[in-house]
Design goal:
This protein is an alpha/beta fold. The protein is 50% helix and 11% strand.
């Protein structure tokens, strides 16, 4: 009640004054009271119209602002809800994947550089701590020539003259006994590869190896992998051989030329050429209807060359017959994969096979290996038969349980390097399902016609010739 009275207090006051003032005037002066009442009514009407116009203008202004806000809100909602085009989304995903790969490669390079620098610091500290060589002793002067003895000389003089002069070394200052200050060893340049270069042994032989590699002296040899105990061939391993010198000489093993190629940065080219020839062999096996796999051990340095893995991914995507190719990497490489290398290998999963090769120990996590897409583990036979002889190779799992544990997740165990026939029964007792080595077959070169066979092209469809009909059917149509 009080707020209502306060709001209309002015109007009530004006009404009471009008009654008090105009009431008597209306009785005594009716004309003046009518004129005054008309003037007051006109003034009140004018004030009311002015206030109505002001309120109308304010309402229109507020309506315009609300309309502008509603348009902006509608635009924001439309932009937020509207889906991005597929092409723009695909381009963004491609850029993000490329950046992820580059960041992963950079992180791997920085990690390797840190390892190399720390190794160099340890070597420099060892050189500084090594004691300096002692200064060489001064050469002894030649003895003085004997003077001729006079004839009348007494015997004492003759004896003194015949005795050689005794050499007394000069007094050495204490400062001369101190070892010289060590010469600061200039730091070696950081190698461009994650594996430090090995010392040069023979420049002439290395030049001959590089020359043979550039003149297409590279050969691919195959060594079978057999099942135990049936000894049935189930796979092959592609091995690189380099023919150095005359054509009739035996090809060199990888231990001879691979360190030289690593120092000269040619391992990626070696892997690229070997993969091309391995692809030809896989296609040849596929044309024969064989499901035999072909394994090639990739160099760890090729993981730092994204172009090689991208080329392999494109080739596998274009040719499904390369599904029989298996890429093998060392155990250290599988354990040290970074984000960039995983991004390059994961698109190959399911299209080609992965294998773990050159293990440092027997600590295999079967679940993790299966998650990486590894379907084969290659272990030297000596590590399986005599694990105690290799320090740090034992695991928590018994050796005889290694094969069954891997087989439960779909990974097959292959024992390599078997040269003695007596080791085969022991491997069978350890439940090793597959084996490879000179005891079964030595590596043999691939035939030239397999590597030079032209790619098969589908024959064009032939047009159907005229149909021959018997003479009776012709007579029936004539009738």
């Amino acid at each position: 009640m009080v707020p209502v009275l306060g709001r209309y207090a002015g109007l009530l006051t004006a009404t009471l004054l009008g009654l008090v003032v105009f009431g008597p005037l209306a009785v005594f002066l009716p004309l003046w009271s009518a004129l005054t009442l008309g003037a007051v009514s006109a003034a009140a009407s004018g004030l009311a119209l002015t206030r109505i116009k002001a309120l109308t203008a304010r309402c229109e202004k507020l309506s315009g602002e609300v309309d502008l806000l509603s348009r902006r809100l509608l635009k924001v909602e439309t932009t937020a809800v509207k889906p991005a085009p597929d092409s723009v989304e695909a381009a963004l995903r491609a850029q993000i994947e490329e950046l992820t790969v580059e960041f992963g490669l950079l992180s791997g390079i920085v990690r390797d550089l840190t390892t190399v620098v720390s190794t160099q610091d340890v070597e420099i500290a060892g050189l500084n701590a090594r004691p300096a060589p002692a200064p060489p002793a001064p050469p002894l002067p030649a003895p003085a020539p004997l003077e001729p003895i006079p004839a009348a000389a007494p015997p004492q003089a003759v004896t003194a003259a015949r005795q050689p002069a005794v050499f007394e070394p000069p007094a050495v200052q204490p400062s001369a006994l101190e070892p010289p200050a060590p010469v600061p060893v200039p730091p070696r340049p950081i190698p461009p590869r994650p594996i430090p270069p090995r010392p040069v042994r023979d420049p002439a032989s290395e030049a001959e190896i590089i020359r043979a590699f550039e003149q297409d002296g590279l050969e691919i040899h195959l060594q079978p992998v057999v099942s135990l105990p049936q000894r049935k061939v189930v796979a092959y391993e592609a091995l690189a051989r380099l023919r150095i010198g005359a054509p009739g000489t035996a090809p060199a093993e990888p231990e001879t030329f691979l360190p030289v190629l690593e120092r000269y940065g040619r391992t990626t080219e070696l892997d690229r050429r070997m993969l091309q020839r391995a692809a030809l062999v896989v296609r040849h096996l596929a044309r024969r209807g064989s499901d035999t796999l072909l394994t090639y051990a990739l160099s760890p340095l090729s993981l730092f060359e994204p172009g090689l893995l991208r080329e392999l991914g494109r080739a596998v995507a274009e040719d499904p017959s390369l599904a029989g190719l298996v890429i093998a990497l060392p155990q250290a490489s599988w354990r040290g994969l970074d984000a960039g290398q995983r991004g390059l290998l994961m698109p190959l999963r399911g299209r080609i096979g992965f294998s773990l090769d050159r293990p440092d120990d027997l600590r295999f996590d079967a679940v993790d290996l299966a998650a990486l897409g590894i379907g084969q583990v290659r272990v030297p036979a000596a590590m399986l038969l005599r694990p105690q002889a290799i320090p740090g190779s034992l695991s928590d799992l018994a050796v005889e349980d290694t094969g069954p544990a891997l087989a439960r997740v779909g990974i097959r165990l292959v024992a390599t390097g078997i040269a003695d026939e007596a080791d085969i029964p022991d491997l069978i007792d350890l439940d090793v399902p597959f084996a490879q080595g000179a005891a079964f077959a030595a590596p043999r070169p691939v035939r030239t016609e397999v590597l030079t066979a032209p790619p098969e092209t589908p024959e064009p469809p032939t047009e159907p010739g005229p149909e021959r009909r018997p003479f009776r059917s012709v007579l029936r149509r004539a009738v």
